[in-house]
Amino acid sequence: MTQLQVTLRLATIEDAPLLLQWRNDPVTRAASLSIAVVGWEEHLAWVNRVLVSQDHQLFIAYVEGQAVGTARSDRHSSVHELSWTVAPNWRGQGVAKLMAKQLADQFSGPICARVKLDNLASQNIAIYLGMKLDLQKSDVMYFARPALV
């Protein structure tokens, strides 16, 4: 079986409708820290803030020219918090692991991720990226990887 080749490109405002579609997918919402449906105006304001921020990087992941998901980094001081979402029709094909690895490989400094307790797939990805469980509060698990030496 051939391994999928994932490429990342920086998101643009033109990606906002697709990002909202993925964000409001019921399975995505169930795995997200915020499960509420997001409206267009709120989403558009968020995308615009992220795109101009020096502390955020938002990527669209592609396989053979098809958008398959999104990966994001939010910098908090010297730590980059990573998150990822897979397009509904690409779930279960290893896309999240590949795009999260590409994102994580951009950082030699510390990285972290917050994952819901019942999201085993994302817990496994965080571990694959070299993160270890640091803390659990309620139904959220906090994973972290120190700076690489």
Structure description:
A seven-stranded mixed beta sheet has the order 1-2-3-4-5-7-6, sandwiched between helices. It has five helices and seven strands; from the N terminus they run E-H-H-H-E-E-E-H-E-H-E-E. 31% of the residues lie in helices and 34% in strands. It has a single domain, classed as 3-Layer(aba) Sandwich (Aminopeptidase). It is of the alpha+beta class and 149 residues long. A hairpin with a 2-residue loop joins strand 3 (66-76) and strand 4.
Write the layout of secondary structure elements.
Elements lengths: L5 E5 L5 H8 L2 H6 L8 H13 L3 E8 L2 E11 L2 E8 L8 H10 L6 E6 L3 H9 L3 E6 L2 E6 L4
Parallel strand pairs: 4-5
Antiparallel strand pairs: 1-2, 2-3, 3-4, 5-7, 6-7
Tags for this model:
149 residues, alpha+beta, Aminopeptidase, 7-stranded mixed beta sheet, 5 helices
Per CATH, the superfamily is Gcn5-related N-acetyltransferase (GNAT)
The CATH topology, please?
Answer: Aminopeptidase
Could you tell me the number of beta strands? 7
Mean pLDDT: 96
Low-confidence blocks of residues: none
Order of helices and strands: EHHHEEEHEHEE
Share in helix: 25-40%
Taking Cα atoms only, what radius of gyration do you get, to the nearest Å? 15 Å
Write the CATH architecture name: 3-Layer(aba) Sandwich
Proportion of residues in extended strands: 25-35%
CATH class: Alpha Beta
The largest sheet, given as strand count, sense and whether it forms a barrel, is:
7 strands, mixed
